[in-house]
Write a structure and sequence with these properties.
Helices cover 34% and strands 22% of the residues. By secondary structure, it is an alpha/beta fold. The two termini are 37 Å apart.
Length: 445
C-alpha cells in the first residue's frame, strides 16, 4: 500500500498553488493524498506569516500533532512556507516543537524530495532554508486540485516594501517567469480542459520589469488571451502604482478576460498611504477607477483594506469609509493591521490600541457587507453566466462564480462541474446568488 500525505495550507492563493506543487513532488515520490492527519505518513504545513493570526493558527495546529507523533514516531512532520523563512523563526519552532522532522522555506520547497530522502537516511532533523531566491525552477509539475480553475504563477517575490508588509523579506526580490513558459503552461491547461486560468503575482503589473521575461504585463495578457479554447482569464494582484491604461485596453479587447480587477487600496487617507509607502494617492487611485470604467463601464473592482495602521486617526479612517462608498467595490478583504517584526511600520510611533482597531474593523466590515449585499440584490431577475466549480453537499446545490467572482448556486440533474452555465437569478443572500438554469440556451461545455 502506498504511503500517504496530508498538506495543511495557510494564507493566500499563492500558497494554495504552491501546495499543489508540493503535492506534485509527493505524488511523484509515490505518496497518495489523504484528507486526515491520522492515516498520513507525512504531514506538510505550508505556512503564512502575513498577519499574526495566520502564524498563531499554524502554531496551534503543529502543536496539536505532539500526541500523534508520539504514537507514530515514523510519521514525518515537515514545516515550510513563509513562516520558516522569517528571521529566527526556525529556532523558535525547533524549541517549541522539537518533534518537527523537516523545515524548509518558501524559497526552496522544490528541494522537498531531497530533504525527505535525507531525513529517512540520516534519522535526524533536517533544516534547509535559503536566504535569497535562486533561479526560477520550472520543472515542478503541480498536482492540481482545483479543476476547473488553474493557477499560473507569472511573478514571484515583491520589490515594493510597503511598510507594513513582510512579503518582500520572506519571498525575496521580484522575479518574472519567461513568457514562453507561461504561454506553454496555459496552452496545456486549456488543452487539458481547464476553464479558468488565473495569472498570479504579488504585483502582476510589474511583470517583466527587468526586461528579461520577453514582455510587459499588458503584452503577456494579450498573448495569453489569444490562446484558442473556451476558457476565461483572470489576474491578481494589481498594484495601483503600476496599473495602467494599456492593461485596461487589453482587458477590453478580449471577451475571455474577466472584467474584474483586484486593486488593493489599503487606505483612503493620503497621510496613511504615504506612511505605508504605497506610492500613490487617493486621487490617483480614484482616477484609475474612472479610467477603467470609462473603457469598460461594467468593470468591477475588489480591494484589500487595512485599518488601525500606526498613526491612523479617526479622520483617516473616515476617509477610507468615504473611498469605499465612492468606488463601490464588488467586495473588499478587510484586515486589522498586524505588527510584523522587521518591517518599517513595526517601529513606527502611534501604534493603535486594540479596542480602537476592533471598533474600526467592525464598522468597516458592516459598511462593506451592506454595500455588497445591495450590489447582489441588483442581480435578482437578471441572467448571469457562471462557471460551475463544485457541488455543495450541504446545500445540495451546484456552485460557481460569475466573471466578477460572485457566487451562484443552482440545482442541476446532470453534473455541471466545469461547465459554463447561464442562471436566472431568483434570490440574493449576502454575497451569494441563487438561480435557475436558463433552459434552451446554448450551453458551453
Ligand atoms: N497587517 C494587516 N494586513 C496586512 N496585509 C499585508 N500585510 C499586513 C499586515 N502586516 C494585507 C494587505 C495585502 C493583503 C494580502 O494582506 O491588505 O494587500
Ligand atoms: Fe506586501 Fe506591498 Fe508587496 Fe503586496 S505590494 S506583497 S502589500 S510589499
Amino acid at each position: 500500500m502506498s504511503q500517504k500525505y496530508h498538506i495543511v495550507t495557510y494564507g493566500c492563493q499563492m500558497n494554495v498553488h504552491e501546495s499543489e506543487k508540493i503535492a506534485g513532488i509527493l505524488q511523484r515520490m509515490g505518496y497518495t493524498e489523504t484528507a486526515q492527519n491520522d492515516d498520513a505518513d507525512i504531514i506538510v504545513f505550508n505556512t503564512c506569516c502575513i498577519r499574526e493570526n495566520a502564524e498563531n493558527h499554524a502554531f496551534g495546529n503543529i502543536g496539536a500533532l505532539k500526541k500523534l507523533k508520539k504514537q507514530k514516531p515514523e510519521l514525518i512532520i515537515a514545516v515550510g512556507g513563509c513562516m520558516t523563512q522569517e528571521k529566527g523563526k526556525t529556532e523558535i519552532l525547533k524549541k517549541k516543537f522539537p518533534f518537527i522532522d523537516i523545515m524548509f522555506g518558501a524559497l526552496n520547497f522544490e528541494e522537498l524530495e531531497t530533504l525527505i530522502t535525507r531525513k529517512k537516511q540520516e534519522k535526524k532533523k533536517v533544516i534547509s532554508i535559503r536566504e535569497t531566491a535562486g533561479e526560477i525552477v520550472e520543472n515542478v509539475e503541480p498536482y492540481r486540485t482545483s479543476y476547473p480553475n488553474a493557477w499560473v504563477n507569472i511573478t514571484y517575490g515583491c520589490n515594493n516594501f510597503c511598510s507594513y508588509c513582510i512579503v518582500p523579506y520572506v519571498r525575496g526580490r521580484e522575479r518574472s517567469r519567461k513568457k514562453e513558459h507561461i504561454l506553454a503552461e496555459v496552452r496545456s491547461l486549456v488543452q487539458a480542459g481547464y476553464k479558468e486560468i488565473t495569472l498570479l503575482g504579488q504585483n502582476v503589473n510589474s511583470y517583466g520589469a527587468n526586461g528579461t521575461a520577453g514582455a510587459n504585463f499588458a503584452q503577456l495578457l494579450d498573448e495569453v488571451a489569444q490562446i484558442e479554447g473556451d476558457f476565461r482569464l483572470r489576474f491578481m494582484t494589481s498594484h495601483p502604482k503600476d496599473f495602467n491604461e494599456d492593461v485596461v485596453k487589453v482587458m477590453k479587447k478580449h471577451d475571455k478576460i474577466c472584467k474584474l480587477v483586484h486593486l488593493p487600496v489599503q487606505s483612503g487617507s493620503n497621510t496613511i498611504l504615504s506612511a505605508m509607502n504605497r506610492r500613490y494617492t487617493r486621487e490617483k487611485y480614484l482616477q484609475e477607477i474612472q479610467m477603467l470604467r470609462a473603457h469598460i463601464p461594467n468593470a468591477e473592482v475588489t480591494t484589500d483594506i487595512i485599518v488601525g495602521f500606526p498613526g491612523e486617526t479617526e479622520e483617516d479612517y473616515l476617509l477610507t469609509e468615504d473611498l469605499v462608498k465612492q468606488v463601490d467595490f464588488a467586495s473588499a478583504f478587510t484586515f486589522v493591521y498586524s505588527k510584523r517584526q522587521g518591517t518599517k511600520a513595526a517601529t513606527m510611533d502611534g501604534q493603535i490600541p486594540e479596542d480602537i482597531q476592533k471598533d474600526r474593523i467592525m464598522r468597516l466590515v458592516e459598511l462593506v457587507n451592506t454595500l455588497t449585499r445591495q450590489k447582489s440584490e441588483k442581480y435578482v431577475g437578471k441572467n448571469v453566466r457562471i462557471l460551475c466549480e463544485d457541488y455543495d453537499k450541504k446545500k445540495g446545490l451546484y456552485m460557481g462564480r460569475d466573471e466578477f467572482g460572485r457566487m451562484g448556486y443552482f440545482e442541476s440533474e446532470t453534473d455541471a462541474v466545469g461547465k459554463f452555465v447561464d442562471l436566472h437569478i431568483t434570490k440574493a443572500n449576502g454575497i451569494s446568488l441563487y438561480g435557475e438554469r436558463v433552459k434552451n440556451t446554448e450551453e458551453k461545455e
